[in-house]
Amino acid sequence: MAALSSPGSSPHPTSPRVYFQSPGETAEQTDRRHQGKVTVKYDRKELRKRLRLEEWILEQLVELYDCQEEEIPELEIDVDELLDMETDAQRGERVKKLLVDCYKPTEAFISGLLEKIQGMQKLSTPQKK
């Protein structure tokens, strides 16, 4: 379990710290352990594109399933998995399988999704500058 402490509560007030706490370990025991600082650099532009894509996907699923966001059947459209596939045909088939329970036509959603992910980068590994 990781806990983020606020800058005022750490021994070095300039930056937040991440403490890793084992199950059953108290906060005091964690404070005595070595502190770790986490820094990850992602391309912010790519993160914004991904966020907009995820919001679009949610809107589309609400329409496709004709329900509220909380009522959408549990399914995971993994954009990185789609980006790993070689062709749009493979990507389209994967999404079609995920939406097998949807009673409305999904072709427009699938083609829109494939269009939106063109040129996107995977986010599973940070970009180095």
TrEMBL record:
Residues 1-16 have a biased composition (Low complexity). GO terms for molecular function: protein serine/threonine phosphatase inhibitor activity. It holds the Pfam family PP1_inhibitor. Transmembrane segments: none annotated. Keywords: Acetylation, Coiled coil, Phosphoprotein, Protein phosphatase inhibitor. Residues 58-85 form a coiled coil. One of its GO terms (biological process) is innate immune response. Residues 1-37 are annotated as: Disordered. GO terms for cellular component: cytoplasm. Belongs to the PP1 inhibitor family. This is Protein phosphatase 1 regulatory subunit 14B. It comes from Xenopus laevis.
